[in-house]
UniProtKB/TrEMBL annotation:
Function: Part of a membrane-bound complex that couples electron transfer with translocation of ions across the membrane.
InterPro entries in the cross-refs: 4Fe4S_Fe-S-bd (IPR017896), 4Fe4S_Fe_S_CS (IPR017900), Ion_transpt_RnfC/RsxC (IPR010208), Nuo51_FMN-bd (IPR011538), Nuo51_FMN-bd_sf (IPR037225), RnfC_N (IPR026902), Soluble_ligand-bd (IPR019554)
Gene: rsxC
Any GO MF annotation of the entry: metal ion binding
Cofactor: [4Fe-4S] cluster
Origin superkingdom: Bacteria
Protein name: Ion-translocating oxidoreductase complex subunit C
GO process annotations (BP): electron transport chain
Cofactor note as given: Binds 2 [4Fe-4S] clusters per subunit.
Stated family: Belongs to the 4Fe4S bacterial-type ferredoxin family. RnfC subfamily.
Record HAMAP family: RsxC_RnfC
Protein's UniProt keywords contain Transmembrane: no
Intracellular or extracellular location(s): Cell membrane
Length: 443
């Protein structure tokens, strides 16, 4: 099959940072002795704990009941005894209700778990129910419930599904390893999702620096003419939903719109692999691949880690710190969240743990804007970050809205390229939060 090419206008080329883990073989994390599983690991309503302190739970057992349509159940990642149901620290910076389980080391499986059978025997509704029951969310970091994403509104016409294998965030290589080692699962998961949405066309977008992944997925697709691979230009944020759609289909998501408005559904390759895993084994989402890396880590690598394992435990498995870290980030350097402590749990959306030394984490002092226009040239949404930030700093929320601030994807390209080192995206985030708060008050 021919591999097609595509890209989008704008973007930046930050330091790659993937060299230390891309060629290191995938490892399996140690069996945890204790896990802390938050009841909030997805966009939407948090779950309600369905177990109590002192109860025994099985691996894969549901321990959190979803609340509402935009919510998914949460499952135990080990078998053992529930030792606490209480508020604990979360990678978001909040403190949320969590279930703490002391593992017995046996991984005794929930008795009711069994494979769902072949794709041919499942219809669209049974597929979406399976995805819901397995607690599957977007594994690229956004954690939007997948069954909701595959439930296309009746007024939208979708004709294809795009899998995001770009992994454009610096340092992270979890998707790269996944595409090389589990290509067949990814392709099967894509086909399952296509049947759920009733579309005939599927695309997989991969940055052109991941030749091994392109080769593995090309082989897995074989002669299936309904599936196509796009080799995408290596730049950031090539993996952002709207930019991926433009690069592959040439379509644009309208202002304030969703991918369905452009006729597509976008999912991460990790999400597709989990769909296939859940269908063929019956197992819910209880583990994921993540990259633990950075110049402060002794042995950077990508590992398969159980949900609920502490960041510190993962860091220790990678040899620990070689010097005092200046910053620990959940995710990558561009869109990740800085951590106050390392005793927070790995959650469904934890794509990486980035540990930087004080030298690398040093933040320059911002100076006055010189109106060079670089932030405009790199913005993938074609906004005016310098003006949006200025409006935000003056609390001019109406002007922010009029200039489409809510379309900002917070990729950080503007802050990265700014020669004055202004914290543009931070100011934009403040405005977006204020606008959302005012809208809620108005309702």
């Amino acid at each position: 099959m021919n591999v097609k090419h595509g890209t989008f206008r704008g973007g930046i080329h930050p330091p790659y940072g993937k060299e230390s883990t891309a060629a290191v073989p995938l490892e399996f994390g140690e069996k945890p002795k204790m896990v802390t599983i938050p009841m909030s690991m997805h966009i939407g309503a948090p779950c309600t704990p369905s177990v109590k302190k002192g109860e025994y739970v099985y691996l894969g057992q549901k321990i959190g009941e979803p609340n509402g349509f935009v919510s998914v159940p949460i499952h135990a990642s080990v078998s053992g005894k529930v030792v606490a149901v209480e508020v604990r620290p979360h990678p978001s910076g909040d403190r949320v209700m969590s279930v703490v389980i002391e593992s017995d080391g046996l991984d005794i499986l929930e008795p009711s778990i069994k494979p769902y059978g072949s794709l041919e025997k499942m219809d669209a509704e049974s597929i979406k129910n399976m995805i819901l029951n397995a607690g599957i969310v977007g594994l690229g970091g956004a954690t939007f419930p997948t069954h909701v994403k595959l439930t296309v509104p009746p007024d939208k016409k979708v004709d294809s599904i795009i899998l995001n294998g770009a992994e454009c965030e610096p340092y992270l290589t979890a998707d790269h390893h996944l595409m090389q080692t589990q290509a067949e699962k990814i392709v099967l998961g894509l086909k399952v999702a296509m049947k759920a949405v009733d579309v005939e066309k599927g695309f997989i977008g991969i940055e052109d620096n991941k030749g091994e992944a392109i080769e593995a997925l090309t082989k897995a697709i074989g002669n299936d003419l309904n599936l196509e691979i796009y080799s995408l230009h290596t730049k950031y944020p090539q993996g952002a939903e709207k930019q991926l759609i433009t690069a592959i289909t040439g379509r644009e998501v309208p202002s304030g719109g969703l991918p369905a408005d452009a006729g597509v559904v976008v999912m991460n390759v990790g999400t597709a692999a989990q769909i296939a895993e859940s269908m063929t084994t019956g197992m819910p989402l209880y583990k994921r691949l993540l990259t633990c890396t950075g110049d402060a880590i002794k042995n950077p690598q990508t590992l398969e880690i159980r949900i609920g394992v502490s960041f510190q435990s993962v860091i220790d498995q990678c040899g620990g710190f070689i010097s005092e870290p200046g910053k620990v980030i959940s995710g990558g350097p561009m869109m990740g969240v800085s951590q106050f402590e390392t005793e927070v749990p790995v959650i469904k959306g934890t794509s990486g743990i980035l540990c930087l030394t004080k030298e690398f984490a040093d933040v320059s002092i911002p100076s006055n804007c010189i109106r060079c226009g670089k932030c405009l040239s790199v913005c993938p949404i074609h906004l005016e970050p310098l003006n949006l930030a200025a409006y935000s700093q003056k609390n001019k929320w109406k002007q922010c809205e009029e200039n489409h601030i809510m379309d900002c994807i917070e990729c950080g390209s503007c802050s990265y390229i700014c020669p004055a080192k202004r914290t543009l995206v931070s100011s934009i985030r403040v405005a977006k939060r204020e606008i959302v708060a005012q809208r809620r008050k108005g309702n």
